[in-house]
């Protein structure tokens, strides 16, 4: 399996590369009121709207702002789409599908956590939105 | 010689001819002896045959040739057509479509078998008695009186190509935002003007391109004519199909997603709503049923209503369901509006229950339709009158339509309200205002902390703060905002699943420069 790996704080996160639609350096994200903290805003790219998620905040770490090297990863799967902002893009790795633990992989002594887009979506859906958000 | 390019052109062109052919067949079905129509049908089949021959697509040209012979007999009045003959031509047209999509190849044994049986059918004489009709000279002459080459007003392009163009234009726009900074010496005023002009033109170009994503609802509805006819035939009924408000423009993506729900509603109307001809005549109705699709746009929404003139929905079994399955009391049911009672059939609970069967299938699958509409950010409601008919009203965000909106900021957020909904924009001193608590503080709503300011910008809305819609006689809602940016055209996209949870925004507006503003749903302010 080919994994697209990025880093947020000290965690290495891997997403199946088939889901990665595009990497962009356009950081023009429009904030949306009454959304959870990890919801950075909306991105309009090539005629489509994407919800943009700050992965640091999503994983429960404090935000450290963006820099010149910050990129946005656009993910598309089934009929859903999402954009995530990592701290750093690591690159592509090939892993053995036969591993016993399908949530974690080790590559060059780094622990890579496999994250399915549906998992991110589910977690986002569980957050509170609107005027009464917690 | 590489024929791929020509095969592509053939597929595009013949697709157009087939669509026209099917429309003509639907017309001739109602007037079997219309020789002029038969001449046109013959012409369409002949055109496909000619192109297929040029590309040595023998299977296609052979089928066309035989279909053409039938048409010629009807056209010359040597034979009188029949509904069965028209149906066979419909089948032939459908098979041609499939064959063209496969570049004239019959891939499987089943395909070959179907092809052979169709060929043998067309080799026989059309299924009708031989009648002698005088051969008219006029249609041929009339055909020749038209110009040989029509002017090209429209071209067909792939939808994905429009998307590509939009993407590229947007990237050029973004590029202009990252224009390297020059010193005064490097940048002459002439160059600066040229760049400004160029950037402004790019914005206009982008905005114009977005219009390509729209199509008239009428063209979309037209695509259902054949399906409606086929479903009606399956049910041994005849249906007239009327389109009202077909000129309303809507986003192709949105309409495409409505295709399945609409076909389900049409099927429901034809199979369960419209009565058989004898029953209709007995009720004093016309033998043929009628389905109307009506489109209109209001505020930032598209409304599509599908009506049949059938038997309506019997409320008794819905009420029984509410009592037995939902354990509702008579009093509770009495307090329900007509709309709420009929909307019961949209719940999955009803769909899977005996209620749907008792209603002759009227509820079957309707929950799936309601879910599909809901997914598009819309809603579906039902109205019905016994023996008059049933209406299915779909409300959708107009999506990608262009509206003018007042863009304003509240804290770091850029929001918008359609200009039509704004009565006035004023600067108000709250310390001397008559009723300061009647002003709605959007900063507070957005959870923005800050000092209380007395001198504020106020947007007065045309609508009252309730859900009744137009109610100018009621007090106008007054929103306190930070700054008004301007009155701008916006391309409206539907809110996504996550933002729809906020329940305060009715759409996402894209400005000419690609910036985003969020459409505040003033009807839903808490």
Short description:
Chain A has two helices and ten strands; from the N terminus they run E-E-E-E-E-H-E-E-E-E-E-H. Chain A has 134 residues and is mainly β.
Per CATH, the superfamily of chain A is CheA-289, Domain 4
How many helices of chain A? 2
| Tally of discrete structural domains of chain A | 1
The secondary-structure class of chain B comes to alpha+beta
Show unreliable segments of chain B.
129-150, 352-360, 464-473
Please describe what this structure looks like:
The complex is a heterodimer of chains A (134) and B (526). With 134 residues, chain A is mainly β. Chain A has a single domain (2-126), classed as OB fold (Dihydrolipoamide Acetyltransferase, E2P) (Beta Barrel). In chain A, 10% of the residues lie in helices and 45% in strands. Chain A has two helices and ten strands. Chain A has helices at residues 55-58, 117-126, and strands at residues 2-8, 11-16, 20-24, 39-45, 48-54, 72-77, 80-85, 88-94, 104-107, 110-114. A five-stranded mixed sheet of chain A has the order 8-1-2-10-9, with no helix packed on it. In chain A, strands 3-6-7-5-4 form a five-stranded mixed sheet. The longest helix of chain A has 10 residues, at 117-126. Chain A starts with a strand and ends in an 8-residue tail after the last helix. The model of chain A has no long low-confidence stretch (mean pLDDT 87). With 526 residues, chain B is of the alpha+beta class. Chain B has three domains: 4-145, Four Helix Bundle (Hemerythrin (Met), subunit A); 215-397, Histidine kinase-like ATPase, C-terminal domain (Heat Shock Protein 90); 402-524, SH3 Domains (SH3 type barrels). Chain B contains 20 helices and 16 strands. Chain B has helices spanning 4-30, 35-54, 58-75, 83-101, 109-123, 138-145, 159-177, 189-210, 217-222, 225-234, 252-273, 277-282, 315-324, 330-334, 338-343, 348-351, 354-358, 366-375, 442-445, 497-500, and strands at residues 214-216, 239-244, 249-251, 289-298, 301-308, 379-385, 389-397, 402-410, 413-418, 422-429, 439-441, 455-461, 478-481, 483-493, 505-510, 516-520. In chain B, strands 2-4-5-7-6 form a five-stranded mixed sheet. In chain B, strands 8-9-16-15-14 form a five-stranded mixed barrel. In chain B, helix 1 (4-30) runs antiparallel to helix 2 (35-54), helix 2 runs antiparallel to helix 3 (58-75) and helix 10 (225-234) runs parallel beside helix 11. Chain B is flat, with a radius of gyration of 30 Å. The interface between A and B is medium-sized, with 21 and 35 residues.
């Amino acid at each position: 399996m080919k994994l697209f790996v990025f880093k947020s704080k000290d965690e290495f996160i891997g997403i199946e590369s088939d889901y990665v639609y595009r990497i962009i350096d356009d950081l023009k994200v429009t904030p949306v009121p009454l959304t959870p903290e990890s919801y950075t805003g909306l991105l309009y790219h090539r005629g489509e709207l994407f919800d943009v998620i700050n992965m640091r905040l999503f994983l429960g770490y404090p935000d450290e702002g963006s820099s010149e090297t910050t990129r946005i990863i656009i993910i598309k799967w089934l009929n859903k789409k999402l954009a995530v902002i990592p701290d750093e893009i690591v690159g592509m790795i090939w892993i053995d599908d036969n591993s016993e633990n399908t949530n974690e992989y080790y590559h060059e002594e780094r622990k890579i956590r496999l994250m399915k887009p549906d998992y991110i979506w589910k977690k986002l859906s569980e957050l509170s939105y609107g005027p009464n958000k917690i | 010689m590489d024929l791929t390019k020509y095969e592509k052109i053939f597929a595009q062109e013949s697709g157009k001819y087939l669509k026209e052919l099917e429309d003509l067949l639907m017309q001739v079905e109602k007037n079997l002896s219309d020789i002029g129509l038969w001449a046109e049908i013959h012409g369409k089949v002949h055109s496909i045959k000619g192109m297929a021959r040029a590309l040595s697509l023998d299977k296609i040209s052979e089928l066309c040739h035989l279909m053409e012979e039938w048409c010629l007999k009807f056209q010359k009045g040597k034979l009188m057509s029949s509904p069965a003959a028209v149906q066979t031509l419909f089948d032939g047209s459908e098979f041609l479509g499939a064959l063209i999509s496969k570049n004239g190849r019959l891939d499987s044994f089943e395909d070959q078998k179907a092809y052979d049986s169709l060929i043998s059918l067309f080799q026989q004489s059309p299924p009708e008695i031989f009648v002698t009709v005088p051969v008219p000279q006029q249609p041929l002459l009339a055909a020749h009186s038209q110009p040989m080459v029509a002017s090209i007003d429209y071209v067909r392009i792939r939808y994905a190509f429009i998307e590509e163009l939009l993407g590229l234009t947007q990237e050029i726009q973004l590029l202009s935002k990252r224009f390297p900074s020059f010193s005064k010496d490097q940048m002459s005023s002439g160059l600066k003007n040229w760049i400004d002009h160029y950037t402004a033109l790019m914005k206009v170009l982008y905005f114009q391109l977005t219009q390509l994503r729209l199509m008239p609802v009428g063209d979309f509805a037209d695509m259902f004519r054949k399906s409606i006819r086929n479903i009606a035939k399956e049910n041994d009924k005849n249906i007239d199909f009327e389109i009202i408000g077909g000129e309303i423009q809507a986003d192709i993506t949105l309409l495409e997603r409505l295709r399945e729900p609409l076909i389900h509603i049409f099927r429901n109307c034809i199979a369960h709503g419209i009565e058989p001809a004898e029953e209709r005549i007995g009720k004093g109705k016309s033998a043929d049923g009628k389905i109307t699709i009506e489109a209109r746009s209001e505020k930032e929404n598209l409304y599509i209503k599908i009506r049949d003139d059938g038997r309506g929905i019997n409320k008794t079994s819905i009420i029984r369901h509410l009592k037995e399955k939902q354990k509702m009391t008579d009093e509770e049911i009495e307090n329900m509006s007509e709309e709420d009672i009929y909307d019961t059939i949209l719940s999955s609970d009803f769909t899977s229950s005996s209620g749907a069967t008792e209603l002759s299938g009227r509820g079957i699958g309707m929950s799936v339709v309601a879910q599909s509409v809901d997914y598009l950010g819309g809603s579906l409601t039902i109205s019905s009158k016994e023996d008059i008919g049933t209406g299915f009203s779909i409300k959708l965000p107009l999506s990608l339509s262009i509206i003018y909106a007042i863009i304003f900021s509240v804290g770091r957020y850029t929001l918008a309200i359609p200009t039509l909904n704004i009565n006035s924009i004023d600067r108000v001193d709250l310390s001397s205002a008559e009723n300061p608590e009647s002003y709605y503080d959007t900063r507070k709503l957005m959870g923005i902390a800050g000092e209380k300011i007395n001198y504020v910008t106020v947007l007065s809305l045309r609508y009252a703060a309730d859900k009744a819609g137009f109610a100018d006689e009621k007090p106008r809602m007054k929103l306190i905002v930070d700054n008004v940016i301007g009155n701008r055209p916006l391309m409206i996209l539907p809110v996504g699943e996550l933002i729809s949870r906020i329940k305060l925004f009715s759409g996402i507006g894209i400005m000419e420069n690609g910036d985003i503003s969020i459409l505040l749903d003033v009807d839903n302010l808490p």
